[in-house]
TrEMBL record:
This is Ankyrin repeat domain-containing protein. It comes from Lysobacter silvisoli. ANK repeats lie at residues 159-187. Residues 299-317 have a biased composition (Basic and acidic residues). The keyword Magnesium does not apply. InterPro entries: Ankyrin_rpt, Ankyrin_rpt-contain_sf, Cul2-RING_E3_ligase_SR. Keywords: ANK repeat, Signal. The keyword Phosphoprotein does not apply. Residues 1-31 form the signal peptide. It comes from the Bacteria.
Length: 334
């Protein structure tokens, strides 16, 4: 026997049911997370108070008029506002992944180099700033914005590391490139020692990449002025200092370091770059010799094929010609 359909509820009851369904639907909308990109990762209320919090909130909400009003009309100085961990307010949009907010602060006069100074500290008196955070970021837009608004590419972190090293340690090659292109000192060693105004040592950005066999990046650095012939620096009390100080570890890597197959062509490019400029292969160090032996590779210098000087000059001339043609083709039509 077919079931008899239930009669519809009385009109007032239907209205209540519909209202309930609508409320449930609205509650579901309110409970749902916002679309991707609308919600920022961190709450400024956990980091700032007072005027700093007002400006951080306006920045998070990308309220251009409010940011302008707070800074220019109300005199809120973002260069003198810091969070509980001594981060300057201009670094907040970098921390909170908000490039538009960073642009608003910079366009309204925020100093990209602002940082807290604590002279009582024995080390790290200058705390980290927006540039240090940006150098670590996967998105180069933050570093680009800061540099375009006067950020110093030779800023040091609170650990006295260059931004180049900060970016390298974070695995951010695009940030390394950007810093070099904007004037970072490419041949300044990490924790540089100096004598007579000259920075000593080989521990430069080129060494960090060549030492790991990343010769594609090493070649780019060579083309942008990196010096492969820098010598080791050792303290005066080190034994065998005179002999070790003659070593050129970057060239040792370029000529003798065993590499993965995909890096062999790039290593050869680095070799031709050095040879074409009159740099000779240095003696193979014992550590590289042991590494080659463990891999079953030749360990005698005479058994390792290298480009001749003539080949190097030809290949480098061809590279230069190719680069010149590319630069002409990149010029926009007038």
């Amino acid at each position: 026997m077919p079931s008899t359909p239930l009669p519809p509820p009385p009109r007032p009851l239907r209205r209540w049911l519909l209202a309930g369904l609508m409320l449930c639907a609205l509650a579901g909308c309110w409970a749902a997370p916002p679309a991707e990109g609308q919600r920022l990762p961190w709450d400024p209320g956990d980091y700032f108070q007072g005027q700093a919090l007002q400006l951080a909130l306006a920045t998070d909400r990308r309220k251009a008029e409010q940011v302008r009003w707070l800074i220019r009309d109300q005199g809120v100085n973002p260069d003198r506002l810091f969070d509980k961990g001594d981060m300057p307010l201009v670094a907040w949009p970098v921390f909170n992944e908000n490039p538009e907010g960073l642009r608003l602060l910079l366009e309204n006069g925020a100093d990209p180099n602002a940082r807290k100074h604590e002279p009582q500290r024995p080390r790290g008196q200058y705390r980290n700033n927006a540039l240090v955070l940006a150098a670590r970021s996967k998105n180069p837009v933050y570093l680009k914005l800061l540099l375009e608004h006067g950020g110093d590419p030779n800023t040091l972190s609170s650990n006295e590391e260059s931004l180049l090293h900060v970016a390298y340690q974070a695995g951010q090659w695009r940030n390394v490139q950007l810093l070099v292109q904007r004037g970072a000192r490419i041949n300044e060693p990490l924790f540089a020692k100096s004598e007579g105004g000259q920075a000593l040592g080989h521990d430069t950005v080129l060494n960090w990449y060549s030492g790991l066999g990343n010769f594609d990046k090493a070649y780019w650095l060579l083309q942008h002025g990196a010096d492969p012939a820098r010598r080791m620096w050792l303290p005066a009390e080190m034994p065998d200092r005179a002999k070790q100080a003659q070593r050129m570890p970057i060239l040792e890597d370029i000529f003798w370091l065993p590499v993965k197959p995909e890096m062999e062509a790039w290593q050869r490019k680095c070799q031709t770059y050095a040879l074409a400029r009159g740099l000779k292969p240095p003696p193979m160090p014992s550590a590289i010799k042991a590494s080659r032996k463990g891999l079953g590779l030749p360990t005698e210098e005479r058994d390792i094929p290298l480009p001749s000087v003539e080949e190097a000059k030809r290949e480098q001339a061809a590279e230069a010609q190719k680069a010149a043609v590319q630069s002409v083709s990149d010029v926009p039509a007038g």
